[in-house]
Each structure stands twice: as structure tokens, then as C-alpha cells.
Task: structure prediction
Amino acid sequence: MKNLNNMTDQQLIHLYASGDENGLKMLIDRYKSKIYTSIYMRVKDEFVAEDIFQETFIKVINTIKSGGYNEEGKFLPWVVRIAYNMVIDYFRKEKRSPTVVTGDGYDIFEVMDFADDDAERKMVRNQIDVDLKKLIQLLPDDQKEVLIMRHFCDMSFKDIAEVTEVSINTALGRMRYALSNLRRLIEEHNLTFQFT
Result:
């Protein structure tokens, strides 16, 4: 039995295309939190995000099975681009723009793995996560989008530029403004973040 964990994305795609479902399962396991998070941060609705996530992978499956996948070595940016387009289609169908949700909902930080902390540290980290999530939601959409793709999806600026259809310099500028605005919001809200 092959060790799927050591296979590249491209090898897993070829494995799936040749009929082994484990190739796709491993790709989904590898990237599901990043892809779901990128969708959720745009739609702000857990159920809609789950639907779009599933529709995204239906499109991925159909494209791979039809032999239409040709993004060698760029699986994650390709899937994020598909998800991004599905989100745009969703809002076009709904004829509304996304709203900021600051209440209880899916927390982006639940998909991130943190080292085991004692109870007090966990409580402090959870509050920091909630506060930071609220501040990120206050950023302009174009800045929020770049921040999410860069820090939560680990995408390169080149890939971000391709997905958002802007130049690399524009993507870099949006990130710079996002970080600057986030610092300003942290100061305005009198918050202190200490990451250890």
C-alpha cells in the first residue's frame, strides 16, 4: 500500500484520475480546512459555506474525471479559484452582498491547530481569537480577502493575484493596507495580542 501522505498533489490527482478514490480523499483531507475557511470568510454563513464547499468539490471531481485538470502543481490555488467563483455565483443568484456577522458562528480559528495549553491560556487564546476575528471582519473586502488567502490558506502573492485577477503589486498593497488597518483597529479597540 502506498503512503498517500508522502505523495504530491499531482501524484494524488493522477491516482484519483486512474480510479483510486483515496487520491481525492487525501487531497480533501489535506486542504479542506483552508478551502472551507476561504469560503466561509466570504459568505459568513456555515450552511452556505458547506454547500459551496461541496459544490466546489463536485466541480473538481468532474474536471479531473473529464481530463480537464491542467494546473500542474497548483491544486490549492486552482480549487480556491473555483470556490471564489462559486461564491460570486452565489451572491449573484442571491442578489445581495455579504454582511458582517459578529455573533456566534463558525470560528475560523477552530480549524487551526494550537499546542495544548492549560485552561487559563485556552480561555485567553479563545478570547483573542474572537476579538481578532471581529476585527478582520471590519476590514474592507479586498483587504480581508488577501489577508485570508495569505495567512489562513498559505497562498503565495502570485497565486492570490491570479485568483483575484489583480497584479502582484496590487495584492501586496492590499495586504500592506490590511495589516496597517488591523493594527489601527487593534489600537482603537484597546486590545493587546500576545502570541507565544
